[in-house]
Amino acid sequence: MRPVLGRFSPAIVMQGVAACVPVAALAVLVLNPPRDGTSWLTLAVFLAAMVVGELWSVSMLGVREVPPLASAAALGCVMSSQGPDGAMIRYDAPIVILTVVVAMAIGVGVRGLRVVPLALPELAARIIGIAPTVALYRWLPLDRGRPVGEDERLLVEHRWVGALVMLLIALISLAIEMVLSSLLRASRDQAPLWRSFADEVYDVAPLLLAIGTSAVLIAQAEPFLGALAIPLFLIPLALMQLALRRNAATRVASEQSIRALSKITDISGFTRAGHAEAVARLAVQVGRGLGMSARELVDLEYAALLHDLGQVRLRSPIPDGATVSLAPADQQRIAVEGAGIVRRTDALPRVATILESQASPYHQVRELGEPLPLPSRIIKVINAYEDMTAGRSNAQVQDAALERITLGLGYEYDPDVVDILTAVLARTGAGTAPVRRAS
Amino acid sequence: MVAAFALALLGHSLSPLRDPTDLALLCALGIIGESIPESKVLDSAALSFLGIVTLAAAALIGPAGAAIVAGASTLLPIARLPLSARLFNASMSALLGSLCGLTYVLTDGAALGRTAVGSPSGLLLHVGIPMVAANIVQVVMNAVLLSGVIRLTAPIPIRENVTRLLESSGAALAGHGVLAFLLVVLLRPGALGPVAALLIVAPLLGAQWAFSQLANERHTRQGAIDALAQVVEVSAGADRGQTQRVATIGALIARNATLSHQQVDALVNAARLHNLGMIGEPAALLIRSEPLDEVAMSALSAHPARSVRMIRQIDFLSDTFAAIRHHHERYDGSGYPDGLAGEDIPVLARVLAVADAFDALSEPGPGRSPLSSADALEELAGRAGAQLDGRFVEALRRGLLDAEEAAKIEAAHEDDPMPGINHDDPSVSDLLARTDFGAATRLPAAGRYAADM
User: Fold this and answer.
1) Is the pTM higher than 0.95?
2) What does B336-364 look like in DSSP terms, one character per residue?
3) Which residues of A touch B206 (CB under 8 A)?
4) Among A57, A177, A68, residue whose Cα is nearest residue A108
């Protein structure tokens, strides 16, 4: 698969555009100095909230890191227009953009000090996402020459209409961020764009919706609570974030447990150390290329890690733990034993289903009309490949393994899976010579 | 129910009902919120819309209004409970609602009319603080009422239950006061009407969504632990259900020795996984006869550390490592792998040792048939101070006095005895206590974890 934007990767393009945004804002600011009565205090509170939020992000199902409090504070900052006692909150569009960028920069600085991995392209996507909102709300004269942010009919007389308009503008910004973020991920993971976007919608959109409404709530409550509205109306979002972080921590615990389970066969001498890990790594890459969703990939990874679990029932280990050289009936028995262990826990039914079919040859799909789950077909191919190469990264060995798998194409192995595997191997620099497929 | 009515009337006389549109809006919000299926995460007590709308009603409409909103939100949602239960719950909610409303009035809460707009500090002082007071009353009284109801069906003292409820859910419930305050600000001075409800519900639903996912994630995590325990049972020589049985016995001991919830949870996990290290060690699994041969002995002496090695990358199990490593230590210091004695043996390891021994005795052993609970207890009592910590043998005896618990443990046995001798049998422990494993297997105490990692 080619990068989406010709020779330039989306990440580089986005970072370039994002870098232009604060520069342009600065230029505008120099030409039009801030007007009198700029509400510096409110800005300072927003800046503080954004900085705190930048440092407290949450990982959404491995899709991406989102800093909900920072995003909500930034959007709230964009849409603040009225303080207590009817005073207007005044600051211009460029100042808002610079505040947001400064907060991100401080966040990056502090995270850099604590050696937290940075995601600069994601930051770029957020800057590009917020810029149109600032323009729409504080700059673009929509009604009688005034932008929404200075329209008293919306802000004072018909407050609820104003609230809905604000919500719409916030959602536009977040939608732009979603599209950009899926572009980034699609190009980084070599996954189809539609799949990255669907993952965003399923797994990130609820959080973004909560971020958008929190921002509107802040802006709407400021006339009554002043700057106090900022921390207070971030509380519901913080609560959600707390739950999401616990989710992430529990997910890590599950993954660690599954990995421990997969290592048991290594430690007890049934399987070659690192085999399951290698199969899982490759299987996830191939699954991504085939357009599997983030959730399906988790199941695939778990099943790949546990694919040799059934060997714990063996009386004595098989050579190297390599199931590829076993008779089909024995392969099947190990698959069923492993699936049985997982099935009895009744918490991982999908993983058990994948394990059950992992030894079935592909021709069953065609000849007997037996549907085989895609993850099972992936594991069958990757397991064979990994058993044959035995973890060696020597190009010749890898080509020979692919050659052997190609011989079983259509009968034993799913050709689509083998195609993507070949592409993945070619991309990661392993297996230099592309395998010729007789077609 | 009578009490709820009386309190609502009293509240009404102090501060009459105001504003029917707010009443309708809050009722609708409460009913919709309560119709959403509850998240399965019990200990984190996900948000309840009921608590929030009740508090908001207390401030906006007064005590009687709070009672009506709370009652309606409990009574009317799409039913999953029989009508009588819902009526009972509704009167409980209404009672709590009027209490909240009264608290709000008595703590100088401002009666928020249509035009009440104050400065930020005025809002905080005359709306925010009274609402927090009402929130505290709500949380505490809820725990008291709930414990009272539980007391009717189970013999758990009210005070113990109240503390447990407050500990587990108090902090989360306290958030309701803040959220209700936000809702009141948007509804009254903000005059946003239904849009306010829409806006505040979005992040709340988001939080609910996140909590429901948390329940799924926990289920998966438990599944992974169960799978590990399954592996112990299918391949480490434990019979079907043994790990669960030891976990049940261990939990019974721990509760009766008044260990904390966290310790009970850790013990359950430790009990399920403590024999992982026996996987792939046929020599240690099939002890056919005494004396033990050297292979079996070295496998046996290594299995506690091996078990820890198999799970040590699982961070959330770190509180089980000590229990697993030391579950074959003996109180007199003649156990393995480190020869710790008395109080030097980690608490959970001492509990686990008692549970293991009790369970092994209730299965057929070398040259004996299964012992009854009473006989097994007597045998264990004889070993207090030598092999076991007498305090936990005593705790087990107390626990088994409860017929229900005893029956549960009795029923867990299946007619599926394992081949060979269970290494957890006390006689094997005696045998090993008389044997010297040699200096090689015994590490200096200070370095024991370092050597493992």
Assistant:
1) no
2) SSS---GGGS-HHHHHHHHHHHHHHHTS-
3) 206-207, 209-210, 236-237, 240
4) A57
